[in-house]
Amino acid sequence: MGLAVETNSGKSRLRSAICAYSFRNELQKKTMKYEDLVNLSVDLGVEGLDLTVYWFPSTENSFLLPLRRLAYRSGVELYSISVRSDLCKPDAAGQESELASLKKWVDVASKLGASHIRVFGGNVPKGRTEDEAAGWVASILSRAAEYAGTQGVILGLENHGGITLRADRIIQIIKKVDSPWVAMNLDTGNFREDSYPQIEQCIPYAANVQVKQNIRNNNTTEPSDWKRIVGMLRKGGYKGYLALEYEEKEPAPTAVPRLIGELQKIIA
């Protein structure tokens, strides 16, 4: 596209957020609605919401626009949506299908006023190489970015296993796309080894950052060192949201308020 990748630098600015995925059980059972997450954000002093779209009752204006209005009137930014995708598609038909899906979600994000979409790279198909798969991911993202840019929406490729298992490969894909509308959705809990060095490596390319209560590091699971992560983000000049994605056994309605309080103190 002839445009350089934008990277983080300068003074850092961090804001607190919640990933809707934290309340997946409640959203699945319909004991909570997306509107409830907006109201909860007000109660907890949270500034932003990353709306995992899996449980949207609709993608029609009748659902999206009132939700956007409620968020605005509540002083909560719907800054991101999180979608499913598998960009490791070797065939033209599969690539076109993924491209069409991303364009659809760009339109949804635009209607909500969200400027970021979390996307997955997918898994390398059996019998194909990682280098091949990385090329397919970059190709789809490059084409999707052309459309996303017309709507002011950034596509954030998440480190989510598969083709995005390691920082080196993710950065290589982002650089190959070479668009200001493609960046990284950095999930600090998703690396499996050398987690903290890999997190630090990715910070310059991050457009959104998620934190989990625990981190996987060299085949062990341990509590995330949020102070260390925040320190790295500040040093790396990251400006944006730091979103809690809660995945543990304690019910989210009791765990999330406590953990958000801890995260906000560290950010402050």
Word description of this protein:
With 268 residues, the chain is α/β, with parallel strands linked by helices. The chain has a single domain, classed as Divalent-metal-dependent TIM barrel enzymes (TIM Barrel). It is 44% helix and 20% strand. The chain contains nine helices and ten strands. The chain has helices at residues 24-29, 34-44, 61-74, 92-112, 130-150, 167-177, 195-202, 226-235, 252-267, and strands spanning 13-19, 48-52, 77-82, 116-119, 154-158, 182-187, 206-211, 214-217, 220-223, 239-244. An eight-stranded parallel β-barrel has the order 1-2-3-4-5-6-7-10, surrounded by seven helices. The longest helix has 21 residues, at 92-112. The protein is globular. It starts with 12 loop residues before the first strand and ends with a helix. The model has no long low-confidence stretch (mean pLDDT 97).
Tell me the series of helices and strands, N- to C-terminal: EHHEHEHEHEHEHEEEHEH
Q: Quick one: biggest sheet?
A: 8 strands, parallel, barrel
End-to-end CA span: 38 Å
CATH architectural arrangement: Alpha-Beta Barrel
CATH topology: TIM Barrel
Q: pLDDT average, as an integer?
A: 97
- The assembly state of the depicted protein chains is single chain
Any idea how many domains?
A: 1
Shape: globular
CATH superfamily: Divalent-metal-dependent TIM barrel enzymes
Percent strand: 15-25%
Number of DSSP-assigned strands: 10
Summarize it.
With about 270 residues, the chain is of the alpha/beta class.
Strand and helix layout:
Layout: E1 13-19, H1 24-29, H2 34-44, E2 48-52, H3 61-74, E3 77-82, H4 92-112, E4 116-119, H5 130-150, E5 154-158, H6 167-177, E6 182-187, H7 195-202, E7 206-211, E8 214-217, E9 220-223, H8 226-235, E10 239-244, H9 252-267
Parallel strand pairs: 1-2, 1-10, 2-3, 3-4, 4-5, 5-6, 6-7, 7-10
Antiparallel strand pairs: 8-9
